[in-house]
Write a structure and sequence with these properties.
Elements lengths: L1 H32 L5 E3 L12 H13 L5 H4 L13 E5 L11 E4 L8 E11 L2 E7 L10 E2 L2 E2 L1 E2 L3 E9 L4 H9 L5
Antiparallel strand pairs: 1-2, 2-9, 3-4, 3-9, 4-5, 5-8, 6-7
Length: about 180
Amino acid sequence: MANAKKELKEVLKGILLAIIIYFVIQVSLVVSTGVDNPISVVISGSMDHKGYDFDQWWDIKESEYHNYGINKDMFELFPCTNGFSKGDLLLIKSIHPTNIKVGDVIVFQRENDSIPIVHRVVHISMYQDVLYFLTKGDYNPVADNYYSGSIQGINEEHVIGKVRSVFPDIGNITLWFRGVLGQDA
C-alpha cells in the first residue's frame, strides 16, 4: 500500500512538472513570436502538393499562378515551396503587414470564422492606405474569394502572422485526439 501511494505521488509530480514545462514553453513562444497562438496544426489539404515533387506540381499548377504574374523561378524562391500537409505543425511569427511579400504564407482570420486560414499571398493591393492580401491555397485552383467590403483580399488587420517553420506530421497526434473526442479536425 505504501508503494502504491509513493508511485501515485511520483506520477502526480511528473504530470505537474509536464504541465509546468508546457506553460513555460507556451509563454516563451508567445513572447518570442509575438503571436497569441504561435503553433498551429494544419487541418486541411489546401496547401498540400499531394506527393508531387516540385517540378511535377508546377507543371499542373503553373497556369493558376501565371494569372498573378508568378513564374516558376519566382515561386522557387518563395517560403514553403513544397507546401505542407494535413497534420503538419506550423510555427507562426508576427509580421508587420508592410513586410509581407507576394509568395509569403500568412495566417489570417476572417471576421466571422473561428479557425485561422493559412494560405499563400499571390497579390497585394492598397486602398485608402490599407493593405489587402489576395491569397490562395497551393492546392486550390483559384484565389480565395474573400472580400473586405468591396475590396478583394484580406484586410491587413486580419493578418495574424507568417509561417516561419513547418514540422511535418508532428500535429497528427492532435488530429487523432480531436477525432477521438468527436471534434472536427
